[in-house]
């Protein structure tokens, strides 16, 4: 607009100059003077119009900017309102979540609990369908080829009032329904916990391993010498991040609690109780050196005074891998005095490799209540070593393994495969067989040696298929009476298992 104004001024100025020159030629011409004055007035009017147009042009952008600014402010206010409404909705949802129960269902079972996790209940399960096939068993007179439901356990666990854990586990796998675990554990601090009820006594390493994760269908003959489940109270805990674990308990010490394959079914025949404890060290558990993290070692032990009734036997005997009794005490022989055990033990896990070993001494005073009366201090010993290698590379552990690629043929995934091997030896004190009336039942073996090999297939974390072969040879025994048919020849047995554990 300023350029237009300049051009207009130039044209008018030129006309004014031309007229001025004409005025010089006729100065007296008043008409021309009047025309000049009129032109000046017209210039002033045009200048005002130009200025007015310029002002209008400058005001238009300001008006548009003001309108845009007002619209932006209005939209910003709407956004702020929406954001606040969203915050209120989120807060309301969070407040509702604090009081809503939590329900989960997955590979680890079914669980439900309060929103604050102070009350939680979980349902798990263990089903093991086995087969046992005996070779050279004398036409079935020794081991019986059979299919069996080895374990069928609904496992109900949970937490109440934040710090109290519970476990209730019946078993429907045998001929009668039995309660295997039923206990309450107070865990306010990981380093100091109190457990009460029925649970495993803290002595044997393999015996303490979960039934879900044992390498073979049956535990080794070493577990014949350690206590299994019993009723009692136990203090236990983990120190220094799990580098040290301890357990110390007092138990009922029932007559048959040494039998690893049968739960507690009777009460203790005397007033004396059993004391059991265990110390276990994993000094490099949290170390940055991976090769040492899986090393653990320690020892367990127990002590009790046995004063059993004259009509009772010490236990149901010692069993082979095939669950045949190869040693038992004669009728009328009872525990009558001190009974102590000690078990140094250890394991090592590194990548796909695992190694486990333990040694057990069981020293017990016994008496014969029938003629000829006699007493003896019998010291039985046993040891084992087992190893495994995961062919598919997964890391092995005391608590099992999880396949990297769960079984799915459509994706060319086949789970995890593991080979395992074990050797075990049990030796009965020679004093049990001395004299004309020995403490051992007729035909009992004085020792057993068992080796086993197997292949385990983990389809996924919950489903597993096992197959293994075990051969047990005996020292002593034989004959035509008592346990003779069992111990007169080696036991050769093929095991299979399909397991669901969740």
Task: Estimate the strand proportion.
Answer: 35-45%
Main β-sheet, in a few words? 16 strands, antiparallel, barrel
Give unreliable regions as ranges: 1-28, 255-267
Number of helical elements: 5
Give me the Rg, rounded: 46 Å
By helix and strand content, what is the structural category?
Answer: alpha+beta
Fraction of residues in H or I helices: 10-25%
Strands ordered across the widest β-sheet: 3-4-5-6-7-8-9-10-11-14-15-16-17-18-19-20
| Mean pLDDT rating | 86
Form type: elongated
Topology:
Layout: H1 2-25, H2 30-97, E1 102-106, E2 109-113, E3 120-135, E4 146-160, E5 164-171, E6 178-189, E7 192-200, H3 205-208, E8 229-239, E9 244-251, E10 274-281, H4 290-293, E11 295-307, E12 318-319, E13 325-327, E14 333-350, E15 353-368, E16 374-390, E17 416-427, E18 445-458, E19 463-476, H5 484-487, E20 491-501
Antiparallel strand pairs: 1-2, 2-3, 3-4, 3-20, 4-5, 5-6, 6-7, 7-8, 8-9, 9-10, 10-11, 11-14, 12-13, 14-15, 15-16, 16-17, 17-18, 18-19, 19-20
Helix pairs in contact: 1-2
């Amino acid at each position: 607009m300023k350029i237009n104004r300049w051009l207009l001024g130039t044209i008018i100025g030129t006309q004014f100059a031309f007229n001025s020159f004409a005025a010089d030629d006729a100065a007296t011409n008043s008409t021309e003077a009047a025309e000049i004055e009129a032109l000046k007035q017209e210039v002033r009017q045009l200048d005002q119009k130009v200025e007015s147009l310029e002002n209008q042009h400058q005001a238009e952008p300001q008006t548009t900017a003001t309108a845009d600014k007002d619209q932006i402010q209005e939209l910003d206010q709407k956004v702020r309102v929406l954001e606040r409404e969203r915050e209120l909705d989120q807060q309301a949802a969070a407040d509702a979540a604090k009081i809503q129960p939590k329900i989960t269902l997955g590979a680890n079972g079914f669980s439900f609990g309060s929103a604050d996790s102070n009350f939680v209940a979980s349902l798990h399960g263990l089903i093991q369908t086995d087969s046992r096939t005996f070779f050279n068993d004398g036409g079935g007179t020794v081991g019986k080829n059979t299919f069996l439901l080895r374990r069928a356990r609904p496992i109900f666990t949970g937490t109440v009032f934040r710090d109290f854990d519970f476990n209730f586990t019946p078993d429907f796998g045998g001929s009668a329904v039995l309660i295997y675990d039923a206990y309450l554990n107070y865990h306010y601090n990981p380093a100091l916990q109190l457990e009460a009820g029925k649970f495993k006594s803290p002595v044997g390493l393999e015996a303490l391993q979960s039934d879900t994760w044992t390498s073979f269908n049956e535990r080794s003959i070493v577990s014949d010498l350690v206590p299994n489940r019993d009723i009692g109270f136990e203090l236990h805990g983990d120190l220094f991040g799990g580098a040290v674990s301890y357990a110390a308990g007092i138990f009922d010490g029932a007559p048959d609690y040494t039998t690893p394959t049968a739960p507690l079914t009777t009460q203790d025949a005397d007033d004396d109780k059993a004391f059991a404890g265990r110390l276990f060290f994993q000094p490099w558990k949290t170390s940055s050196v991976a090769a040492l993290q899986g090393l653990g070692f320690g020892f367990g032990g127990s002590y009790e005074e046995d004063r059993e009734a004259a009509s009772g036997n010490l236990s149901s005997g010692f069993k082979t891998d095939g669950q045949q009794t190869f040693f038992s005490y004669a009728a009328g022989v009872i525990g009558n005095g001190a009974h102590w055990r000690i078990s140094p033990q250890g394991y090592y896990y590194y990548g796909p490799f695992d190694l486990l070993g333990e040694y057990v001494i069981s020293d017990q005073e016994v008496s014969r209540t029938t003629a000829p009366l006699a007493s003896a201090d019998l010291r039985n010993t046993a040891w084992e070593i087992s190893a495994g290698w995961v062919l598919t590379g997964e890391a092995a552990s005391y608590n099992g393994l999880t396949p990297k690629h769960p079984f799915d043929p459509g994706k060319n995934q086949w789970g995890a495969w593991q080979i395992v091997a074990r050797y075990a030896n049990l030796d009965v004190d020679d004093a049990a067989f001395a004299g004309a009336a020995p403490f051992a039942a007729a035909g009992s073996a004085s020792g057993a040696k068992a080796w086993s090999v197997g292949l385990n297939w983990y389809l996924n974390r919950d489903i597993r298929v096992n197959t293994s072969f075990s051969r047990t040879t005996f020292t002593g025994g034989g004959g035509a009476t008592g346990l003779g048919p069992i111990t007169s020849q080696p036991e050769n047995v093929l095991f299979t298992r399909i397991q669901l554990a969740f």
